[in-house]
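Please produce the structure of this protein holding zinc ion.
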Amino acid sequence: MTKPSEFYFPCPRTITYCTQCANPLARIIPPDDNRVRDVCLQCGAVHYQNPRNVVGIVPIWENKILLCKRAIEPRANTWTLPAGFMELKESTSEGALREADEEAGIAGVELGQLFTLIDVPNAGQVHIYYLAKVTDPALNPGPESLEAAYFDFDAIPWDNLSFRTVSSTIEHFLADHQRGQFDIHYYSLNENL
Ligand SMILES: [Zn+2]
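Below is the modeled complex.
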């Protein structure tokens, strides 16, 4: 098999062949179901598709917020909070810390409270951010980041943030920091990520 010139994430997430028996799939409403699925008429496997979780942290170091500049699409060259797709067999908080390690390589960080829970139905995603306290600010960004840097609260690069989920989470952080109380914020965004 030859290697493709570039690897990518299919969007929309179409499945053409059965993951169990490799036969072509049909798009039908299975018995006792109420929506169209990718179904294998050979072996009966139903390929359910469900929203994906994006998990991340809001890392704070001495009244500065840590952001990473994305090295990869979508939105390469924009600043983001450390976050990424949750993996199987990990918790949301484990995933958030793993992503922070992969993208920023923070030397020391303590997970704080759940902070934003954001439905993004158009993208088939749920984004979850935890507050986090940086205890050792040394950084070692991974290949998904061009750089990682701490920003003063009044110097956030608002015009060059990656996603509405990121900018709205930072907005909630600054507002809660201003009033001295951090809540859990649950909301929905109509965004195509
Ligand atoms: Zn099959």
